[in-house]
Amino acid sequence: MITYYLKIAWRNFKSSKLFSLLNLLGLSVAIAVCIPLFLFIGKERSFDSGYANKDHIYRVNLIPHQKSDETWGSVPNAVAPAMMQDIPEISYAARMLKNGFGTPASLRVGQENFKEDLLYWSDPELFKIFDFQFTAGEGKNPLQEDNAAVINESESRRLFGEASPLGKTIIVDNGPTLVVRGVYKDLPDNSSIDPAMIANFKSSRMSRSIYWSNASYETFCLLKPGSDIKIVNQKVQALTAKYIKDPSDRWFSLSLQPLSEIHLHSAQVMDTYISRIGDIKTVRQIGLLGLLIILIACINYMNLATAKSEKRAREVGINKTLGATRKQMVLRFYADTALLAFLSVVTGFLLSFGSLFLFNSISGSHLAMTDLFGLPTLLFLMVIWVLVTLLAGSYPALLLSGSSALQLMQKRFHAGGLDRVLRKALVVVQFSCSIVLIIAIVIIYQQMRFVGNKNLGFKPDGVLMINISGVAKAQNLVGFTNEISQMPNVRNVAFLQSPPGFGASQRSLHKADAKSDLTLYTCHADAEVVPALGLHLLAGQSLPKQLAKTDSAVYVLANKKVVDFMGWTPEQAIGRKVDVDLGENAYIVGVVDNFNYLSLKSPIEPYIYYAANDAPESFNALMVKINTDQLAGTMDKIQSAFGKDVPSVAFDYSFLDSHLATLYNADRVMQRTVLLFSCLAIFVSCLGLFGLSAFMAEQKTKEIGIRKVLGASNFSISRMLSLHFLRLVVLSIIIGIPIAVYLMREWLSNFEYRIHISWLVVALAALSGLLIALITVSYQSVKASRANPVNSIKTE
Amino acid sequence: MIKITDLEKIYRTDLIETVAINKMSFEVRQGEFVAIMGPSGCGKSTLLNILGLLDDCDGGSFIFNGQEIAHFNEQKRAMLRKKNIGFVFQSFNLIDELTVYENVELPLIYNNIRPADRKVMVEETLEKMQIMHRKNHFPQQLSGGQQQRVAVARAVVNKPKLILADEPTGNLDSHNGNEVMDMLTSLNEAGTTIIMVTHSEHDAKFSHRIIRMLDGEKITENILRELDYIPDTDLKENA
Ligand SMILES: Nc1ncnc2c1ncn2[C@@H]1O[C@H](COP(=O)(O)OP(=O)(O)OP(=O)(O)O)[C@@H](O)[C@H]1O
Ligand SMILES: [Mg+2]
């Protein structure tokens, strides 16, 4: 029996080639699109699931009292030891401090320098919390000695080649000398933590004082199985009260975040060293998009199937007359759909090699081709197959099989007109989705342009950043800076604690009559900061060029946000004393316009640059403003000067503008992905519209013929055929616009700087949807209207 | 074999009621060949559909093989239908996507006949209908007469006791029409009961008896010949 149905299905497939191919194309494109989306979601959801203790690992997060809507992923370095000591439910706690608070390290191995982005300083307990697989070294307690370090296999190959690294020494940033005590297997790329090298925290400069103030230490802990997270949370909470004696210094509270939530539920968590951050919103959007595309393709199928149902009805009627039962007929239609769905799944699978590549390249993901052959993909395809068969096959199956043989064999079987109404409804649903997508595409694009062109308040282009955190003393660089300052293409050289976009120190701005302090960013800098970054001075001047040896003052260059808070105009602010936790003698020497160093999703922060003798923070970066006309030559000269003047440090540089671009990268990637796949969705729904119009035209050939014999012009006929669809499209626009506007308002509310949705743009987008539909439909209409009426009347 | 008494069929639409069959009564004996005639719209097809268990009636009694079936539901009627009744339609009603062979095989599939037996039965029937050489063609590749022969083959392959034909020659020229009539006659001679709706006096003469209808009612019955013997006089009378 089933072979008989498959046979019919196959012949149906072949006999109506256009419709079958449209369906096949639509479904397989949809499936090809969904496979990478599925793999992406699967990978995002699999994060950190490989760790044996995954259910008992937590990160300690910090919530500053001043801004209780913020969550930080790092805490003071006193937290981990206190937790171990005071809370019996905690088996282990370990700090993970990224070298230089996130600036790359310069490693010296033998005579060679290497740049290292992923060096972490941590406690030996880390290896009790996360499982690392050691392939060299005894692995039991690899960080036993204070100067011990372990590296992963890639790092071992990079630094030492094929030689065994055990016992070899590595000098970090011209400071501590570490001895390699183990090599561990690279952590999988679905692990949130990603160290290439882990050194004992005790060798870090930052371990010398243990305090409850500076919160820069990402801290993980392992709970004993069976402990009540609520109670543990309370106990963690209580630590601040116990250890911070002065209540006014208790500026934060702590809370534990389960490891399983770190990847997808930390988009708002600041100050973490984890760079592989996902976002549940993204995952949901992507999932929704995938579902939408499949749905649109299924609607295509249903539409074409119901459109053909008049022909099918007769066939079912005959079969029923000959003794087919209802069940057998239902089966027959499912067989029809199942065959097509199967072919689509196979084609979609083949196409997915391309779509996966595309997805990887636009989204910057690294989904492996081999994942296509994994069990989850296979299961996913099976599920899609069954789902599409049920979804798309049900309507014809149930409608036609439910009617009696006699009804079905009547010349015009309408199922009470239900199929027509349904078909129209489906077209409207489908095209409403397309309208929403078109409007979304336009608005996302506009917003991206807006963000790209936004005046940042500084000029990041042509600014070369050189990492100098490996240089022990800024004085060692004097030779180098003097040399490059002479180069014709170098305009300014500024020393900074951290470049824009890298975060800076957080301090508090006190105001006598204000209820609370203002959290602001402070950055140690020198006079050149204003020209190098292109800051716009509103009043006063830049930081002093030279400080007298005995000068104990702190010179402050504030942005407008700061003086606004103090209630001063920029002019009034000059020469005023400010209390920013930088000592008694801090004076404002200049005020610059506001600038935005973070993504435009976040508001402008109050920010000061300061210069002082014995500044609490050292310089970590050189900002070199260059003329980019002869970039390669200039870069060569700067690099060779660096190699000559600072031989013990790796030349680690990047460009400020490209670094800032990476800040928006996640958004951009998301937007590009959404854009591309939305276009595909629109394409798929146009396929459906095209098929449907082809069908209508075919069905109406006789009517068209008669009308033409009666004197109708080609134009009036194609208009008649097109209008039928355009009415539906207009209805879709009416439905789609409010939905689109609502959704896009939601999306835009994520941005601090956002465009206003212009009705003109929405109208234009909707109009272009109409145009796309018109073009799709009119091909068939025009074709049908051109046909010779004699031929069309003869048929039947 | 069939006995209907006061059979009624009323079509109700929103505005009007059409009495398609109005208290009809007649009997058809096993082995008989009955023709039903009457003007367009008088209810012939409706009657045939009820006799063929494709439709239900709104009143009266319908005894099929000694069983009252007026109250049968769709499912029971379908069971009875597929075992006992074959249909031939004016518009052939072959399935375009199936070959001649497969079209004829279809009723056997629905009657759960084993594949090996099916092959024998299908080929035997196609042989008898002289379309064996076309068995791998699709319906659209055949002439009208050939298509109707396939439809007859499909109706008889299952060896039904009763064949219902609704204007089987309506779409055929006289040559092809006669071929189909010959076929039906020989089936009848082999013992199959046949009820045929026709507009053609010529075709009606192949039958034993003509039932004439008007506005859903039986008006006359002419017996052309008795079962198993053909009275020449009757034939002439109606010529
Ligand atoms: N599904 C239906 N709904 C309503 N009325 C119907 C329906 N089918 C048939 N009729 C009406 O019942 C009457 C009998 O129709 P029927 O098809 O049986 O006529 P017929 O004798 O077969 O005509 P013809 O020789 O043209 O085939 C007609 O008046 C017709 O309009
Ligand atoms: Mg009729």
Automatic annotation (TrEMBL), chain A:
Its membrane topology is listed as:
Multi-pass membrane protein
Query: What one GO molecular function would you report for this record?
Result: transmembrane transporter activity
Q: Which UniProt keywords apply?
A: Cell membrane, Membrane, Transmembrane, Transmembrane helix
Which Gene Ontology cellular-component terms appear in the entry?
A: plasma membrane
Q: Which residues form the MacB-like periplasmic core domain?
A: 20-238
Q: Which residues form the ABC3 transporter permease C-terminal domain?
A: 288-402, 676-789
Q: Where in the cell is it found?
A: Cell membrane
Transmembrane regions: 21-41, 286-304, 333-358, 378-400, 421-445, 674-697, 725-744, 756-777
Concerning InterPro entries, the annotation shows: ABC3_permease_C (IPR003838), MacB_PCD (IPR025857), Macrolide_Exporter_MacB (IPR050250)
Protein known as: FtsX-like permease family protein
TrEMBL record, chain B:
Keywords, A to Z?
ATP-binding, Nucleotide-binding, Translocase, Transport
Instruction: Outline the extent of the ABC transporter domain.
Output: 2-239
Q: Which Gene3D superfamilies match?
A: P-loop containing nucleotide triphosphate hydrolases (3.40.50.300)
GO CC terms, sorted = membrane protein complex
- Give the highest taxon in the source lineage: Bacteria
What InterPro entries is this protein classified in?
AAA+_ATPase, ABC_transporter-like_ATP-bd, ABC_transporter-like_CS, MacB-like_ATP-bd, P-loop_NTPase
- Please name the GO terms that the record assigns under molecular function: ATP binding; ATP hydrolysis activity; transmembrane transporter activity
Q: Does the keyword Kinase apply?
A: no
Q: Name one Pfam family in it.
A: ABC_tran
Q: Does the keyword Transport apply?
A: yes
Q: Which SUPFAM superfamilies match?
A: P-loop containing nucleoside triphosphate hydrolases
Instruction: State the family named in the UniProt similarity comment for this chain.
Output: Belongs to the ABC transporter superfamily. Macrolide exporter (TC 3.A.1.122) family.
Q: What is this protein called?
A: Putative ABC transport system ATP-binding protein
